[in-house]
Amino acid sequence: MIIKNVHIFDGGPITNRSDIHISEAGIITAITESGTEEYGPDVVNGEGMLALPGLTDAHRHVWQAPFKGVASDMMLLEYLDKVAGNIASQISAEELYYINLYGYIQCALAGIATVFDWSHIMNSAEHADAAAQAALDSGLNVLFLHATSAIEREKYWNHSITRHDRYIEALVKKFGNMTPNVRIGMGMRGPEFAVMDVNRADIELARALQIPASMHIGCSLLGKINKPVMQLAEHGLLTETLNLVHCNTLSQEEMTLVGKAGCLVTITPEAEMQTGLGEPAARFMADVPGLKWSVGTDIPTSSTDSLLFQQRLLLQYYRSLVNHRVLENMEFPVQIPYASNQFFFDSMENANAYADLNTSAHIAVGSKACFSLFKWDAFSNEVFLRNPAFYYLQEACIDTIVINGKLARHRGEWLFHDLENIAMRVGDIAARIMRTI
Ligand SMILES: [Zn+2]
């Protein structure tokens, strides 16, 4: 396939029109200046469009997609009880398939081509199979993190002495090598929620299966009380295979250890600020050299689908923090703390490396062809051409979406699945459950 005549967003001033050449396998083979070749069946005219690289959301509970807004005024404990507990426990395996498929499509419509799906609705083996199958059928790149059941949450999340469900071994066997687009990982509890023997066993299981392991950590008071990173380090368990989500209330000493170990940190600014997890971990981005950080949306029940918004929120929060420090020193802030487009690319590069799904933060030869085409009319003026800050782009302007070399959406129409039917089905499920809570 060739996408012709597009302007490519690479962080600098927008220049010439380009043609993006894509192989059968979905890899970008060449990017050339637009010529005058004939059009054929495999040629898409991107005239008037800006190509933005496919985004990487490094932490999202995809199954919450049909319940938008339900937790927008909830603090952490209420959210855990009503959403992660009550709602999640009422969803059957068959329903989960459609709910997850719908959730992945919602990601794609927001320009996201790669998502870390932290699935804590593994209520049975059938639920795990259904959710992973949806990941496979979605066409997106998914790091599918098999986590806990939503039934009997107390048993899994309060000083738990229960190890990770061994069904993950079967899941890795079934889905681990089916496609280059889906990888199975472990969504483990970590020291704030499970005893150390359990954490050791879980991490050892993940290592034996050669899969990544992700945990929520540094959450609210739990981070302050438990010193979770110190615990992991003391037991020799802090390694680069870990993805540490949130990190709000870790100490400077702990974050230095995280930086040295090379773990991937994921910050989900909106959910953290709302639910009382603590300040987003921007201070560690500023103070720990080489920290591998990334951004996620977290809970669709209170955050919108927009990863561009989450990136923007964290960028400005980071700038505010650094500027504030300068002021505290009785100096005048004169240097921009982080250039916006550099921040945009950095926010995804570490996540892509961790996921190991051959996705790139850039539209580049050799990587999977993942990008969204934004209608150009809305912002094709000389000023924006020279200063194309990423956060002026609005998802509503996405016309065409290419994921792994295939047209997922074209001229506003979703092509991978019967979206209308899926949305209706999922709407009925959500309505049924909402009547019970
Ligand atoms: Zn989460």
> How would you describe the shape?
globular
Question: How many angstroms separate the termini?
Answer: 48 Å
The radius of gyration over CA amounts to: 21 Å
Q: Whole-number average pLDDT?
A: 96
Overall helicity? 25-40%
Counted beta strands: 17
Q: Domains counted in the coordinates: how many?
A: 2
CATH architecture of the largest domain: Alpha-Beta Barrel
Give unreliable regions as ranges: none
CATH fold field value of the largest domain: TIM Barrel
Strand portion: 15-25%
Small molecules (ligands, ions, cofactors) in the structure? zinc ion
What is the CATH superfamily label of the largest domain?
Metal-dependent hydrolases
| CATH classification class of the largest domain | Alpha Beta
Largest sheet: 9 strands, mixed
- Structural class call reads alpha/beta
* Count of helix runs: 15
What does this structure look like?
- This protein has about 425 residues and is α/β, with parallel strands linked by helices.
- It folds into two domains: about 1-55 and about 360-415, Urease, subunit C, domain 1, CATH 2.30.40; about 55-350, Metal-dependent hydrolases (TIM Barrel, Alpha-Beta Barrel), CATH 3.20.20.140.
- The chain has helices at about 75-90, 95-110, 125-140, 155, 165-175, 195-210, 220-225, 230-235, 250-260, 270-275, 280-285, 305-330, 340-355, 380-385, 420-435, and strands spanning about 1-10, 20, 30-35, 45, 50-55, 55-60, 110-120, 140-145, 180-185, 215, 240-245, 265, 290-295, 370-375, 400-405, 405-410, 415.
- The strands form two sheets. Strands 1, 2, 3, 4, 5, 14, 15, 16 and 17 form a nine-stranded mixed β-sheet that branches. Strands 6-7-8-9-10-11-12-13 form an eight-stranded parallel β-sheet, with helices on both faces.
- The termini are far apart.
- It binds zinc ion.
- It holds the Pfam family Amidohydro_1.
- GO terms for molecular function: hydrolase activity, acting on carbon-nitrogen (but not peptide) bonds.
- This is Cytosine/adenosine deaminase.
